[in-house]
Design goal:
Strand content: 15-25%
Largest sheet: 7 strands, mixed
Structural class: alpha+beta
Radius of gyration: 22 Å
CATH architecture of the largest domain: 3-Layer(bba) Sandwich
Number of helices: 11
Helix content: 25-40%
CATH topology of the largest domain: FAD/NAD(P)-binding domain
């Protein structure tokens, strides 16, 4: 007997009929929806949470990496990322780390609760039709394209018809359901659950030699807290509140519901162990775990097969592309699933393998010769899904090999791909062509008009 049940055929009502449908309401997805709507497209966006922002808000990840080139002299990322930073600055909800400009390697620290408000405002102002608490559960094909995404939400099962789709779900929810080409990594980078803590300032004062980044791993067993990579930062506008990221759940394919469930619970268990330990330390009586992330910070699941796979050699070599739609300087950052620690590769040729509590292993991935690249780029072709005339991807679904993916998966990179995918979708609809046939020069020109930095 087959271990399955059969459902009767049913009629699915259409909830929206639009030009562009965006799957996933992270910053990447919101930027895609807003960019298309500002061009005059009718846009719908589907998000599984009750708010937008993805890893930044639901995951509490409150760092956006440098918007400048490797020398820290030239801004290379702007567009909707810069617009949101400016909005948050007016709210006192972002801190520009002094290393972000002019020195390389800096970052922006966000109050991600305030970010929720600004993303709502962007969606309202652009008149995007939002569907919150909604999951994409099926895709209806039409030839080599998708004609509708089927969602499940509080109302029930509904369809959203569109002329073009952008999958910004991170896990390729539309891609998988439309049976478009993707590959699954054998050893995906492990996810991390983040949390907010109070009382860490008092703990620092009572233990001047104590370093959270390493000493927590020495005081907890590998079963309580696997040796991964721990960092923390203040939450702007809320004195004494810190975001901490240091958990690691290996061996989980978070595109699989059962494995995701296990990983979510394991991440919370690890944070509970951290909180219990902190209270036992001298001066730690006032420490408290005040908020767990609404969702696990997933680093890697499905990889979509697109018109070009960006390679580590291209990225670390600073390869320039005639269809470049995004720039960055963030290092290659690979969290290992089969051993402790994290490997970092930098544009200047350095490589560092870091295991908390152990001396970092320094080496070079290339000799100290030749000029250093100031930045890396992502080509538009890496957003164009193979065998699909009207589907694009954005965010961490962009086609890249293991090395390149370790750099492009961070939010300031993903944000740019969302804006670019939206403009490409609009240009394809306007010209009546496949998304693969969008003119790169026209795409880059429109990106400039929308405030993006095109190099």
């Amino acid at each position: 007997m087959s271990d399955a049940v059969w459902e009767e055929a049913r009629e699915t009502p259409v909830a929206a009929d639009c030009d562009v449908c965006v799957i996933g309401g992270s910053c990447t997805g919101v930027f895609a929806a807003v960019a298309a709507a500002r061009l005059g497209a009718k846009v719908a966006i589907i998000e599984r949470n009750g708010f937008f922002g993805g890893a930044a808000t639901a995951g509490l990840v409150n760092h956006w990496h440098s918007l400048y080139d490797l020398a820290g002299e030239r801004q290379i990322i702007a567009g909707l990322t810069q617009e949101v930073v400016d909005r948050l600055l007016r709210r006192g909800a972002v801190v520009v780390n002094q290393a972000a400009k002019p020195a390389p390697g800096g970052y922006l620290v966000l109050n991600t609760e305030q970010l929720k408000l600004e993303l709502d405002a962007l969606v309202r102002e652009a008149e995007v039709q939002p569907f919150l608490y909604a999951l994409c559960v099926a895709a209806l094909k039409d030839g080599d394209g998708v004609r509708a995404a089927v969602i499940e939400d509080k109302t029930g099962r509904r369809a959203i018809k569109a002329r073009c789709f952008i999958d910004a779900s991170g896990d390729g929810d539309l891609i998988a359901r439309a049976r478009l080409p993707f590959r699954t990594p054998d050893d995906p980078q492990p996810p991390t659950m983040c949390a907010w803590f109070v009382g860490l300032d008092a703990l620092d004062l009572a233990n001047p030699d104590f370093r959270l980044e390493t000493d927590l791993f020495d005081l907890l067993t590998a079963e309580e807290l696997p040796r991964g990579f721990l960092w923390h930062s203040q939450v702007p506008g809320i004195p004494g509140l810190r975001m901490l990221a240091g958990t690691r759940v290996s061996g989980a394919d978070c595109a699989d519901a059962d494995q995701l469930t296990r990983a979510e619970m394991e991440g919370r268990r690890q944070l509970g162990a951290i909180g219990d330990l902190l209270k036992r330390l001298p001066g730690g009586g006032e420490t408290a775990l005040v908020r767990l992330a609404d969702q696990l910070g997933v680093r890697e699941t499905r990889h979509v097969e697109c018109g070009h796979q960006l390679t580590g050699e291209e990225l670390l070599g600073g390869q320039r592309f005639p269809d470049a739609i995004a720039n960055g300087t963030y290092c290659v950052d690979i969290h290992h699933s089969n051993r402790p620690g994290t490997t970092f590769r930098f544009l200047d040729g350095r490589e560092r393998y870091v295991v908390p509590g152990e001396p970092a292993v320094e080496s070079r991935w290339r000799p100290e010769t030749g000029p250093l690249p100031a930045l890396w780029q992502i080509p538009y072709r890496s957003l164009v899904v193979r065998n699909a005339g009207n589907v694009l991807v954005a965010g961490r679904l962009v086609d890249a090999d293991r090395t390149a993916y370790g750099a492009i998966r961070v939010m300031v990179s993903c944000n740019q791909t969302g804006q670019a995918a939206a403009i490409a979708a609009f240009l394809a609809l306007k010209a009546g062509t496949s998304v693969a046939d969008v003119d790169p020069a026209s795409l880059r020109d429109e990106l400039r008009r929308q405030g993006a930095i095109v190099i």
